[in-house]
Amino acid sequence: MSGYEAVIGLEIHVQLSTNTKMFCGCKLEFGAQPNTLTCPVCLGHPGTLPVPNEQAVRYAIATGLALGCEIAPRSMFHRKNYFYPDLPKGYQISQFDVPICSEGELAGVRIHRAHMEEDAAKNIHVGESGRIHGAGRTVVDYNRGGTPLVEIVTEPDIHSGAQAREWLQLLRATIKQLGVSDVNMEEGSLRCDANISIRPVGQQELGTKTELKNMNSFRFIERGIDAEIARQTALLNAGEKVTQETLHFDPSSGSLTSLRSKEEAHDYRYFPEPDLVPVAPAKELIEEIRVTLPELPLQKAERYEHEIGLSVDTARLLAFRAEMGAYFESVLEAGGEGADAKRLADWVTGELVARIGADTDPALSNVSPAALARLVVMVGNKQVTGAGAKTVLDRLVENGGDPDAIVEAEGLAAMDDSDELAGVIDAALEANPRAVEDLKSGNGKAIGAIIGFVMKQTQGRADGGEVTRIVRDKLSL
Ligand code: ADP
Ligand code: MG
Ligand code: ZN
Q1: Domain membership flag for residue 302
Q2: Closest-approaching ligand to the CA atom of 145
Q3: Do 259 and 325 belong together in one domain?
Q4: Lowest-confidence range among 88-97, 189-198, 279-288, 431-440?
């Protein structure tokens, strides 16, 4: 990458979780029997008329407000014309020159616009081995056709795959918090295209961009962008040019293939939708939506930082990752009034994440929020040592259950019998004469051998600090 800077702008489609479709009364239900949620309007029969979904307009406004956008007092629907089997009308109702939301910003990335549109139906490609209708065909499920979407377009303010991934995680958590979408990437409720170019460091003018289409996981987005940056860098280094084209990233092979070049780009022949009046939300409506916005992840991260005293990184990890944050809130709640929020946060983002991985929803793990909260309380009360608690957490991750019962069953209770501990320490001193000599001659590190012996004997039930204190006492150090 040396000598070049990557420039990335994202286009994100978000399916809104309204009860019904954008312009008709058909229900929205992912996974329903194909072609059961359709009507003459969303199937594009002649003579039918679209009726805008008020809930979708409210959701679009809420999204714009959460992204710091201006809400247009009057915006239009346009027809975006193209011919494809997933589009029975032959056009998609979208917005063109005046989107409902524009000029926002989220965590340093400017939002160019966010507009409303309807989703296309879903083409399902059935390969040679497919069992539907024989070989090599495409079938269409019109259930998705007409689902309300908000398309969010950023300015090209992102500079790496990792930054794109982190920012998208924040965007996703923000939209989830708003409650306007279920933002389920596997089900296609949140889809992302990345526009990518590179330019010599210091150059203002943007390079030629390519577009990576429809990536549906954070990991693939990061990898796809980084692969494309590497490809463009190699091209420029070889004295060649980047051609403007649309690309597909194959996560399994890591390869990029061209879907279409600029010459094949559509001319959409946009024109105002004659069957719909402009969207003109009253000021009062916009204010009503603004005051009912929930606490958003950015604000939450600040609160975690300032009220709970979490580090910036821990606060952001919890606030920007929707599932992790929700789990942390449940642990806090389970911990009740006196819970030490900072310790709970450290256990969630540290020990638990180390065991289940940062991309797993902790709510789907075997560790219930109540169990984790209880375990942390037990550590605080010195009922179990840090080392013992890690063993308990191992068991919780494996099989779930209750920390008290695990401590009991595995004999992990911290030693509170100081006679027993003193006895083990005597044995440790006797078994480690060299460490004792070293300690006496001023080599403080030698205590490690003795603590190690004690921990082994007690299976981690002894408290390291307590052991150190007693050893020093016994050797009069
Ligand atoms: P198009 O007309 O090809 O759709 P737009 O100007 O509408 O392009 O921009 C689409 C997206 O591409 C936006 O997110 C924008 O920030 C981004 N973008 C535009 N030009 C570049 C570029 N040269 N490099 C990277 N991203 C770009
Ligand atoms: Mg575009
Ligand atoms: Zn319908």
Answers
A1: no
A2: 3
A3: no
A4: 431-440
Task: Identify the residue whose tokens are 């596997």.
Answer: 186
Residue 442 lies in a domain: yes
164-170 mean pLDDT:
95
C-alpha of residue 79 to centroid of ligand 1, in Å: 21
Rg (alpha carbons) of the chain, rounded to whole number = 29
Q: Helix (H, G, I), strand (E, B), or coil: what is residue 251?
A: coil
Average pLDDT across the chain, whole number: 91
What is the extent of the structural domain holding 212?
4-290
Within 10 Å of residue 204's Cβ, how many Cβ atoms? Answer: 5
Both 370 and 277 in one domain: the answer is no
Report whether pLDDT(446) > 90: no
Query: Tokens 């597909």 appear where?
Result: 248
Q: For the chain, give the number of residues.
A: 477
Work out whether the CA dihedral 403, 407, 408, 414 comes out positive or negative.
negative
Shortest CA distance to 470 belongs to which of 437, 432, 428?
Answer: 428
pLDDT above 70 for 127: no
Residue 179 and residue 49 share a domain:
yes
Does residue 177 belong to any structural domain of this protein?
A: yes
How far is the C-alpha of 438 from the C-alpha of 446, rounded, in Å? 6
- pLDDT value at position 121? 97
Read off the pTM: 0.83
Please determine, for residue 228, whether its predicted confidence score (pLDDT) is greater than 90.
Answer: yes
Give the pLDDT of residue 8: 98
- Given this model, what pLDDT does residue 386 score? 86
pLDDT, tens digit, 9 for 90 and up, residues 67-86: 999 999 999 999 999 999 99
Alpha carbon of 38 to ligand 3 centroid (Å) = 4
Exposure of 207 in the CB half-sphere (CA atoms within 13 A)? 26
Q: Return the ligand number nearest the Cα of 89.
A: 3
DSSP code, position 172 = H
- Let me know if residue 345 belongs to a domain: yes
Q: How far is the CA of 86 from the centre of ligand 1 (A)?
A: 25
| Ligand 1 first shell, C-beta below 6 A | 7-11, 153-156, 195-197, 206-207, 209
Report the distance separating Cα 321 and Cα 297, nearest Å. Answer: 9
Among candidates 177, 460, 123, which has minimal Cα distance to 318? 177
| pLDDT tens by residue, 8-37 | 999 999 999 999 999 999 999 999 999 999
pLDDT at 134 over 70: no
Q: Which residues of 409-448 are buried (b: 16+ CB within 10 A; e: fewer)?
A: eeebebbeeeeebeebbeebbeebeebbebbeeeeeebbe
228 shares its domain with 268: yes
Tokens found for residue 19: 């009860």
Amino acid residing at 90: G
**Residues above pLDDT 90, as percent of the chain:** 70
Atom of ligand 1 nearest to the CA of 211: 12
